[in-house]
Design a protein that fits this description.
The chain is an alpha+beta fold. The chain has a single domain, classed as Jelly Rolls, CATH 2.60.120.10. The chain contains 4 helices and 8 strands. The protein has helices at about 1-10, 20-25, 110-120, 120-150; strands at about 30-35, 40, 50-55, 60-65, 70-75, 80, 95-100, 100-110. The strands form 2 sheets. A 4-stranded antiparallel β-sheet has the order 1-8-3-6. Strands 2-7-4-5 form a 4-stranded antiparallel β-sheet, covered by helices on one side. Strand 4 (about 60-65) and strand 5 (about 70-75) form a beta hairpin. Helix 1 packs across helix 2 and helix 3 (about 110-120) packs across helix 4 (about 120-150). It starts with a helix and ends in a 9-residue tail after the last helix.
Length: about 160
């Protein structure tokens, strides 16, 4: 547990967080490694975990009918992957595929939700951090859509 606790303390997601909270969360965590091409999760499956990316890159993919999988975002070292475990119905909305060897810390979502119920302060602190991630990801997706579809032309008045 000590090595895992040290990993968490150094990860950007935990920066400035009370060491007692980090320790509580470490009790719900394990390390995992994914080989290139391996899926961390699939759209529609139960979302019961989230990942701290320690090394490597993960493609978030959306399966587009008639076109196959399309990468909508790439998650890198230092990033957090997955927030669907926080919100019912706890289902993944995308696929996540390792682009190279990916080393992660995996958090058990059910374990954490139980801790949040017992300790609302913990839940509030983590929810604030996830809210920031969600906003950044939505903004990045918006920018990507602008790149794909271009800037709309101004409407001409008659």
């Amino acid at each position: 547990m000590t090595a895992l606790l040290e990993i968490l303390k150094k990860h950007p997601f935990f920066e400035g967080l009370d060491p007692n909270i980090i320790e509580m969360m470490a009790n719900c965590a394990t390390e995992a490694t994914f080989q290139p091409g391996t899926f961390l999760f699939h759209e529609g499956e139960e979302a019961d975990r989230f990942f701290l990316i320690r090394r490597g890159r993960v493609a978030l993919e959306l399966n587009v009918p008639g076109m196959g999988p399309r990468t909508i975002q790439t998650i890198h070292e230092g990033d957090v992957l997955g927030w669907s475990w926080l919100f019912p119905p706890y289902r993944w909305h995308f696929d996540a595929r390792a682009l190279d060897v990916v080393r992660t810390v995996v958090f058990n979502g059910k374990c954490l939700r139980g801790k949040f119920e017992e300790n609302p302060r913990l839940g509030y602190e983590i929810m604030k951090r996830f809210a920031q991630i969600i906003v950044r990801r939505l903004q990045a997706t918006r920018m990507q859509l602008l790149d794909i579809y271009g800037t709309p032309k101004p409407v001409q008045k008659r």
